[in-house]
Amino acid sequence: MCGIRTLLPVRAGTLIRLVPPAPFATTEALVTKVFLQTHIVRGGIWLGGLAPLVVLAGTRRSLSDRAGLLWADMWQRFGFVALISVGAVLISGLWLTWQHIGSIPQLWTTTNGLILLVKIILVLGMITAGAVNSFWLMPRIALARHADPAASLVHLTLGHFPKVVWTEVALGVGVLTALTVFNGSARVEATGQGAPPVDPGLSTAGVVLSLTLAASLYASAKASDALARHQIAAHA
Question: Which of 147, 198, 149, 152 minimizes the C-alpha distance to 28?
Fold first, then answer.
């Protein structure tokens, strides 16, 4: 836990130093700063929120069976915060990836590209762990809560759920570790040139992709709720 607390501010400070200084020469520089800050803040909320919760869940031996209801509410509420953070991290990450990657092969033909590829794989792993929580554990928690078996609810919220969250935390620490050695742009490393100016077509594609991503995350949240209701109805 102490290592995570130490690594988060150190990495945040390193990333903040990469932000272009004001005043901004172009609108793209301003957009890059906004997305970079969003990436840092929302990523910190995502990982920084998971780590303390999963550590607190380790105190389950000193809690009563009724604590399961409290933790069910906590996981559900944080799940909403995490969903927003995931959306913000992915959308800002798309922009930042385009800034640093000019073509797919640069992900494995350049040093910075390889580091970014490792980060992408780790983030996808975190999202997968989150999907397990949303589509498998949360419906089971909702069912146990509806049936009111206190021991089962504690087992799910303070047993199974934290194990998956620990996976997210471990992958998140891996992301931070990868970023500590990320320095520069695969575009520059491969071609000696930075990202080209953004044209209207690229801007439109970016907006459409961002809206599609936001809609898919919203649909995922609704699907998780629908799955929970279906399980409750099936066992009624």
Answer: 198
* Cα separation values, 101 from 37, 44, 96, 151, Å: 19, 23, 9, 50
Q: Fill in the amino acid letter for 72.
A: A
How far apart CA 185 and CA 193 sit, in angstroms, is: 9
Range of 145's domain? 2-234
- E strand or H helix at 82, and its extent? helix 67-100
C-alpha distance from residue 211 to each of 14, 85, 93, 195, 204 (Å): 30, 15, 14, 23, 11
Domains contained in the chain, number: 1
- The tokens describing 18, both together, are 């990469």
| CB-neighbour burial class of residue 129 (10 A; exposed 0-12, middle 13-18, buried 19+) | buried
Which residue, among 7, 17, 48, 5, has the nearest Cα to 178 in the 3D structure? Answer: 7
Distance CA 168, CA 133 (A): 11
Report the pLDDT value the prediction gives residue 3, as an integer from 0 to 100. Answer: 47
Ranges 11-20, 93-102, 186-195: which has the least confidence: 11-20
Least confident of 148-157, 160-169, 212-221: 148-157
pLDDT, mean of residues 183-191? 86
pLDDT tens digits, residue range 8-67?
454 555 555 555 455 555 777 888 888 888 988 888 888 888 888 888 777 655 566 677
Burial status of residue 196 (CB atoms within 10 A of its CB: 0-12, 13-18, 19 or more): exposed
